[in-house]
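Q: Joint fold for the lines below.
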Amino acid sequence: MIDFCLFGAGLIGSVHAGNLARHPKARLRYIVDPRPEAAQRIAAQTGAAIVDTETALSDPSIRAVMIASATKTHADLAMAAAAKGKAIFCEKPIDLDIGRTDQCLAAIEKAGALFQIGFNRRFDPSFRALKQRLDAGEIGSIEQVIITSRDPEAETEEALAGGGGVFREMTIHDFDMARNLLGEEPVELFATGSCLVLPYYAKHGDYDTAMFVLRTASGRQCHINNSVRAVYGYDQRIEVHGSNGMLRAGNRMPTSVEAFGSEAVSRDKPLYFFVERYMDSYYAELDHFIECVLANKKPDVGASDGRKAMILCEAALASAKSGRFEPIKF
Amino acid sequence: MIDFCLFGAGLIGSVHAGNLARHPKARLRYIVDPRPEAAQRIAAQTGAAIVDTETALSDPSIRAVMIASATKTHADLAMAAAAKGKAIFCEKPIDLDIGRTDQCLAAIEKAGALFQIGFNRRFDPSFRALKQRLDAGEIGSIEQVIITSRDPEAETEEALAGGGGVFREMTIHDFDMARNLLGEEPVELFATGSCLVLPYYAKHGDYDTAMFVLRTASGRQCHINNSVRAVYGYDQRIEVHGSNGMLRAGNRMPTSVEAFGSEAVSRDKPLYFFVERYMDSYYAELDHFIECVLANKKPDVGASDGRKAMILCEAALASAKSGRFEPIKF
Amino acid sequence: MIDFCLFGAGLIGSVHAGNLARHPKARLRYIVDPRPEAAQRIAAQTGAAIVDTETALSDPSIRAVMIASATKTHADLAMAAAAKGKAIFCEKPIDLDIGRTDQCLAAIEKAGALFQIGFNRRFDPSFRALKQRLDAGEIGSIEQVIITSRDPEAETEEALAGGGGVFREMTIHDFDMARNLLGEEPVELFATGSCLVLPYYAKHGDYDTAMFVLRTASGRQCHINNSVRAVYGYDQRIEVHGSNGMLRAGNRMPTSVEAFGSEAVSRDKPLYFFVERYMDSYYAELDHFIECVLANKKPDVGASDGRKAMILCEAALASAKSGRFEPIKF
Amino acid sequence: MIDFCLFGAGLIGSVHAGNLARHPKARLRYIVDPRPEAAQRIAAQTGAAIVDTETALSDPSIRAVMIASATKTHADLAMAAAAKGKAIFCEKPIDLDIGRTDQCLAAIEKAGALFQIGFNRRFDPSFRALKQRLDAGEIGSIEQVIITSRDPEAETEEALAGGGGVFREMTIHDFDMARNLLGEEPVELFATGSCLVLPYYAKHGDYDTAMFVLRTASGRQCHINNSVRAVYGYDQRIEVHGSNGMLRAGNRMPTSVEAFGSEAVSRDKPLYFFVERYMDSYYAELDHFIECVLANKKPDVGASDGRKAMILCEAALASAKSGRFEPIKF
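A: Joint structure:
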């Protein structure tokens, strides 16, 4: 049994709290959140105590921390937890700044802390099965990867202004998936972005509609397409083409019901957004983390994966301005 | 090159005429139809001459006849053509009366005429591929067959009154398919019919909605469901369950277009009716007939298949009244 | 918060125990099972105490019982729990004997006990959505229902010999679904069964392969097909045809991965069996029960639904012998 | 009735010859091909006469020419036919050289000749339906287009060496489709190509695996992915994302048969290659051409569409070398 402290009682914190409650080898002991009512809601459901950071990290019975607080607090919390010998599960990104990220990685490394980054899509049952079949050589040598990743609804202008921008908040997951599936590190990245959905994306120097091409040294290619608004729901699909065929994984639908009417045949649109679509992956990533902590094993997706995905975001921002393949230097 | 005479210039006659025009080894020479304008329409497109029955059958250059005229003329035309040594392609049924059917079969047999009955569904590319895979043993021993067969639109009362009834006009195709797929002759048949669509089906002692169960001596089972009205289009599907799995074949859609909208994901409803759905099968059955004529080979689906399907219709009519398994005596 | 006692720590008892642990308004307090090791396994995971029936039913803090023990104990436990004022969730069937079932229903009625029967399929998300759309009139008046229900693997001969037979153990769920979807009570039932899978089904006077037709007074029809062995997994599908179209619900697959290879395009076969396929429905039926207990509301599926499904089983057994529509007398 | 002369009796010439034979308003009168046996094969099937270019173009009864000969002969034949007042159907490309293409366009323009280019995919039933629904505004304003276009099998080295290269021979169709679907002309194009399939593509300075991004002035984006070898068959798919949803069109399969086995559920892989996949589109483009000739109407896809697609090929070749968005100047 592993005792946890959860930092952050927002939407994603609640998802993790629920999974901790379900997991037979985890116990949620503490919640840290500056907003009392949010913390209180989770505490009531789980019986965890609301404490401050100092108390939580000083309690030697707390073996693991779950960092789901505001992005700007991630690096400090991770470093503090590492210093206290805790195992760390941290939502992405580690930090929006590469310098701060590197500093945090160095501290984690020095402390020898077990660290897992919250790239939950790697644990989606369909994407994971696809990856395992790739690794087993089912379609031979990988040649092209195509990632479709479209949010159902744009952020509010307020959220957009307060965040790291679309590439760093949204595409970062796709960049991690590209690295994961290409089987080789990308060395060049091309990006182009437009503002076709809402004018305030342009106002904030951002893009609501974007396409990307990545390329590895051996010539493998990856395309990503993004939109911040797909009215038919969260669209998350992957295709991998190899020398012996194609593997693809698609969306999840609420039900299997099909209606045959006088105009058309219709079925459910995909599940609404990430909480619904990736519900199973949040549990699976927690399960992987717990398994790693118990076996003192390095998680499949660690701090350097978080860092590399951020470097791809930087290259994408540069390319969207330069109109050319930008080199990637990890 | 085989010279044909076509009897009947109605809807199905036109389909056959078009296929004869396309087929590299067939030539449509004569058309016989008491309705001049129908015959004229096909003649104009194909260059065939409009003649009477006597002229057509007496011309020794005519090697094959295509009988697509009114049902009550089938047996006489088939017997006359057989007497003249023609190869015969005859739309189903041979006759609505079993006695007349037997008389016709005897005449065909005596003349040694090559005879193919128009059970076109056997030549549908999907159903035929399914049958070939069954025969190749892909799913082991056959256990259950499920046939869905639903027309898009009810007949007019006039057409209903003038025809042989729903079982003999519509279900007969399903009975043939059941025999074809079960791999053994059925020995018992259960039927139940209702009038849920249009009151005039009841008025004419008929059923617009029906279910059937057939059973072979070894215990294989087949279910058929029928409706005369499926607002979403012609619904023609087959499932065969065997000891090693299931094979199924489905509907055909006009296009592969899918629309992902804010309410649902929708695609085309199935093709409207038999001419659209079975367009390829009409060509394929003609091709099979021509191949048989050229090789003097017995067609895969002959006069006795037409007769047996009619006997199943009789058993179905009896069962729908008796409420019990009726024995089948071929 | 509702305190529960669970009777039966077998496969299905474990599923219920897991769901009780997850449910925010339930607490599993006691486990009763004559097999100590099975009870111990659940106790270790949940913290529940292992007690005897007397202790559990005498504890006034226990508000609800979950009966998942051997079939022959259901009626006695339900009557004892009813006498103590407990809310009762009981796995189907109440009893294999209609007389005992009626006696149990009378006792429950007399005690005014809240009673829900475990027809979990009614709570399957897809089947429930289909039913709600039927009730909302989406496809107009119901005309035909087609239920496909095939187990992945036959029972052992020992299990078969010790159980109530295929119709009472397996088809009973389909009969309940037929009643649920037809929108009218069936008045006649036809059944035919064969032994095509394993000889020991015949030896025990049972059938491993069966087809059914039910009919309501107004002429609505329902077909059910069953097999005890579908090598491709648990096959659970529903089609409902109405005056304005068709609604259908299908199987669930483990992942959405599709492989495009040089021979074919392949995807996952359906989930293995009922625990996997109906995982969500077990949680949903528990949630409904808890909601009913808290609101003192009659569950959607009660004791008389259990009784009526058993009567349909009796009619099916009679029809499979008589070869005719058997009348149904509820 | 329109009398045609066909130039070129190769694979694509045979397809056109078959469609001319089927079309009720067309007659194939002449075939011109330097290879006597190829011409003879088509002549035997259709009854057309084998003549030389001079004879064919000088016959005033020939109203239309079908140019399906070697690429390098297209421009001369088109100019000669235009000078004689023939309507011209010309396979793409007009010429691999933009200068020659411009010269040919000027001659056609000057002669006032009706000219249709063989971008057959525009006439594919699914792609055409998708385009019509886009034009009808079904998904609002177009934002992104994604084109998947993968051949089943690489060319031989000989064919590659003798042709115009992969971009000009294969991608040209996708570039035309991109222009057709974007609803605005592209102004920038990015391309990257690799040699992952066969070394001789590199040897000839070509690419067997490529990705493209096009962009219009308003910021609409299009991605194309190409491979010269998809072992699962010809992969031709389109997705268009708009402000109100997505429309997509997929591959065509030989049959609808699905096999449910103990390992997986499998269905047919897509049809093998362009002749099978686009069989209907070849007929439909001919039908459109004939309709235009009869009505003296400008075809939907003309000489300037052929020229613009070639210009996109040039930009793609430049971008694959420069690694940057290349401007497009039509």
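Q: Anything notable?
A: Chain D touches chain A through 39 residues (CB under 8 Å). The mean pLDDT of chain D is 96.
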